[in-house]
Amino acid sequence: MSEKPGAEPFCRACEHWIRVAVPVVLFAAGMAVADTLPRLEGRQPPQSVEELWANYDPDAEPLEVEVIREFEEEGITIRMLTYTVGSFRGRKSRMAAYYGFPTGTKAKLPALIQMHGGGQRAEVHSIKYAAQNGYACLALNWGGRILERAREGDPGTDWGAVDATQTGHNSHYGSLIPDDRTVDTVESPRNSNWFLIVMAARRGVSFLQKQAEVDPDRIGAFGHSMGGKLTVMLAGSDERIVAAAPSCGGGGSAPGHIRARANAGVRPRKSALWHRTIDDPPYLERITAPILYMGPQNDFNGILDNVYANWERLGSKVVSYTVNPHMNHRATPEHVFPGMLFFEAHLKGAFDFPVTPELRVTLEEKDGIPRASLVPDQPGRVAEVEIYYSVDSHILTRFWRTATAEREGDSWSARLPVFSTGQPLFVMANVYYRLDHKVVGYRWMKNPPGTFGVSSGMDSFTPEQLASSGVRGDGKQNPMIEAEFTDFQDWYRLNWENPHWWSAWTRKVKDPGFAAPAGARLLLDVKVEDDTTLFFVVKDNSWGAFPAMRRQGEFYARVDLKGSPAWQTPGVTLADFKLLEGRQNYALQSWKHVTELGLCGRVVLPGEGRRIELPEGSEVRWRSPRFFRNLRWEVP
């Protein structure tokens, strides 16, 4: 690593001042300056997205860029810097960020702006991820945390008289009500933290356009979680964004038909003004750039049904999805790498990203079993097709069954047997394409997978539609939850290579076809060479999936195993489970509210002032491969 502090008095763009050249008086604390946003002075606050941004010009004020430090790593030039967002209530707001690009580049590069998620900060690895793939990148530090690699005395994000961080003021970003840290003194969308951060991002786009390394007409945006919402808001308010890839955010609030479902698990509505000016749908309507949604089936922030419903309002002709099965707020490589591949296609023209596959579901079948058919783009590159369906209204805890998909020429189809016509039906699919394009992943996911996933849209049907179409439920309950754990198709795994912290999770036990009979015991065949410990962990009523039951908790049952070459069959009953965590101290009395089941190598108990890990001692390990079979219910 080489470092070049104060390398030159000015950057290539004349208004981009470096630290040594900035007059100290410019950033004097509390110095009164003219406000960027004109005061309302009795006028009505903006009532729509159009009104909110109508008179805002991100290029109207100088950026006053201060480069704090420049260094080079792995062939990438990285600058820690700050720039002016604007002036509010007589004080300037300054945004800290990292900017980087491949060292020595001579061609004009496409650029990316990255917005971190809640509780996070701008980090160097985001710059490296972009630069190693041939992009310049600006990563905003909107949350105000101390920058990675910052030194004592280094300036950071300073919102001045307003506050768009998550530290106290409007920490959940749902309010437009005025307080001592807002722009306006009446309810107004200009009081929203989201608005201020998007303003900072639009200024960041202006910064990128002025850099000598950047092609100003090829700028994309990406971010995860809160950064995903910011990506959608930025793309919907700034036409300079020509490609976007929001992750786990940007789906917006539930529209009326989803909110009308019994027990959908969606968030309560906010104020009418918030939904007109800050919610995602009015921004989605304004987006014309190619856009890729990235998120899992059970995400709490990018609620899948909301995404599919609200994204029908997009103005863009290129709308793509990559939806990871079973997970919440994270993804496997097959659904992470499509983000960069999407930018390769739409910022470089270097990759042919497949069009969203065409999904069709027919209910009126002779055997009374719905059927799904899928026609993917580029069928010659397809490695695998997976068709999923669920009968659960609760979006966050629903289990997605994998149907058996059969190929007929360039299309795939699958039967979708349902348990009962008294429940709804939801259907989607993933197409996995062979990945033969050179692309670099994040530092923790460097090597590309063999395939990448592109998802279809989602079809949904009410119980009334199923019944009127002649669909017949089979009513079959299978006591065998999982016979063979060969591919963990109905599960998601975390830290699987870690001998201490591995775990595998499924929501299959919430599916009516695999629900526990009354009084059942849970059995599992296990083979393990060394003495070790297995934990059965259940989540009871997570995300309030059963509204009548007000309690929520997580419980564990410990089983100590002796090493043996033979299969063993540990079993647990409800009485074996102890509270792991929960708002109330209660006993697990029934399987019927269990929303998730985990097999884990280790658990952490809540302790007073110290961390309590089970099993005790670091010598207890269970290395992979791990051998399981025949997870089942048994009624004594």
Written account of the structure:
The chain is an alpha+beta fold and 636 residues long. The protein folds into three domains: 1-106 and 136-211, no CATH class; 358-468, Immunoglobulins (Immunoglobulin-like, Sandwich); 480-634, Sandwich (Jelly Rolls), CATH 2.60.120. It has eleven helices and 32 strands. The strands form six sheets. A ten-stranded mixed sheet has the order 1-2-3-4-6-5-7-8-9-10, with helices on both faces. α3 crosses α4. The longest helix has 17 residues, at 193-209. The N and C termini lie far apart (66 Å). Residues 1-30 have low confidence and may be disordered.
Q: Which outline best applies?
A: globular
Helix content: 10-25%
What share of the residues does DSSP label as strand, in percent?
A: 25-35%
Strand order of the largest sheet: 1-2-3-4-6-5-7-8-9-10
Query: Main beta sheet: strand number and arrangement?
Result: 10 strands, mixed
